[in-house]
Specification:
40% of the residues lie in helices and 20% in strands. By secondary structure, it is α+β, with helices and mostly antiparallel strands.
Length: 425
């Protein structure tokens, strides 16, 4: 959520930033109109309540002195009725104002390039060369089936489309990847967490999934609770409604959780394999930073995501998202994309974003520079480190052999009990 003072004092700048995302800036005018009426009504009701308190004392004196107070009492009845009218109107305005404010996206950083969609993202760097095969390479879904590493058909029978059973070495590889990623992030100073995977609506609101993206979530029937789409939600909300001391900042968290997404807007996309599932494992990084440190933290977090692929020796590239592709709550986002031979292209495996104070304002997450200073909003950052299923897909495709086996990268072998290859039983 944006600071209303910014909307009041720099309206044209906010309209320009919103328009860069392809949104009509008319919502800004609606908010400012509601804000003006809201402040006027608050001022009026405060004056009326002050007048009522003062006159109540006068009435008490008059009654004590046995003086006639009926005219003043009638005036106070009228004042009371007006206060009631204002409070009812304020409740309506506040609800409308809050709803509209919650639908304004974060302000885009000046470094973000303008563009209509992901075709206009800007490549920052590329690491590793795609492998040239001396045989016809398989897609990861065929490798999974041939080596009996996963079962999509039985998962569909039990849960529906876009679910998977990892089986045998496939389950071991998934677990190995998760443990490997967590160990790397631990070494980089992230505190490992195990978090809830069902949260209240207010937690989803704080991180920006609600109200705008409710259709992408799985809601618990008859409850205002949701399964998490990412542990960004639970990790960011760990310090919700708290003010941290100076020595508690920065905060660096990592966690592995299942993630649940309805993929409401992705019909027909990536229907095969591990790329777009309703439930998948992901290792997340979240940081709470002082505002002046958050941009350097964004660069460092991006390097930490890239480092996982560097250690696995899988080709990848990093792109800066343009105005038409950046997420609702982000001010600046890098995507790390991994090379997938089956697509003959790079596929997003991590998004690393600086949300500035957008989530912190919604979640009331603050810090104090010293015990006497005024609380300030922290900046929150999040990024995948990495999406485990997509990492498995990339590993299988890039490390496959002509005999149908898959070589296990050296850094993963200790997590696989020393196993060097995945082969059909």
């Amino acid at each position: 959520m944006l600071d209303i003072k910014v909307l009041r004092n720099d309206t044209e700048m906010v309209k320009k930033k919103v328009a860069q995302r392809g949104m009509e800036p008319v919502l800004i005018d609606d908010i400012l109109r509601l804000d003006k009426e809201r402040r006027a009504l608050i001022s009026e009701t405060e004056e009326l309540k002050s007048r009522r308190n003062k006159v109540s004392q006068e009435i008490a004196v008059k009654k004590k002195n046995k003086e006639d107070a009926e005219d003043v009492i009638k005036e106070m009845r009228d004042v009371g009725e007006r206060i009631k009218e204002i409070d009812e109107r304020l409740n309506t305005i506040q609800s409308d104002y809050h709803d509209k404010m919650s639908r304004i996206p974060n302000l885009i950083h000046d470094d973000v390039p303008e563009g209509k969609d992901d075709t206009e993202n800007v490549e920052i760097r590329r690491t590793g060369e795609p492998r040239s095969f001396d045989f016809e390479p398989k897609a990861h879904w065929d490798i999974l089936e041939d080596l009996e590493l996963a079962d999509f058909d039985r998962a569909a029978k039990v849960s529906g489309a876009r679910f998977v059973y990892h089986t045998g070495d496939g389950a071991r590889l998934e677990r190995a990847l998760m443990n490997f990623m967590l160990d790397v992030h631990n070494k980089n100073g992230y505190r490992e967490m195990m978090t809830p995977q069902i949260v209240r609506a207010e937690a989803m609101y704080a991180t920006g999934q609600l109200p705008k993206f409710g259709e992408d979530l799985f809601k618990i029937e008859d409850e205002e609770m949701y399964t998490i789409p990412t542990s960004e939600v639970t990790l960011t909300n760990f310090h919700k409604d708290e003010t941290l001391a100076a020595d508690q900042v920065p905060v660096k968290f990592t966690a592995q959780t299942a993630c649940f997404r309805s993929e409401a807007g992705s019909a027909g996309r990536d229907t095969r394999g591990l790329i777009r599932l309703h439930q998948f494992n992901k290792v997340e990084m979240v940081r709470l930073e002082r505002p002046e440190d958050s941009w350097a933290a964004l660069e460092e977090m991006t390097e930490h995501a890239e480092n996982i692929l560097n250690l696995l020796d899988i080709p990848h590239r990093t792109v800066l998202l343009c105005t038409g592709d950046i997420g609702f709550g982000s001010s600046k986002t890098y995507d790390v994309e991994v090379w997938l031979p089956s697509y003959n292209d790079y596929k997003e495996i991590s998004s690393i974003s600086n949300m500035t104070d957008f989530q912190a304002r919604r979640g009331n997450i603050k810090f104090k520079r010293d015990k006497d200073s005024k609380p300030e909003l922290l900046h929150t950052l999040n990024g995948s480190g990495l999406a485990v299923g997509r990492t498995m897909a990339a590993l299988l495709e890039n490390y496959q052999n002509g005999d149908g086996s898959v070589t296990v990268p050296e850094v993963l072998q200790p997590y696989m009990g020393g196993q060097e290859k995945l082969e059909r039983l």
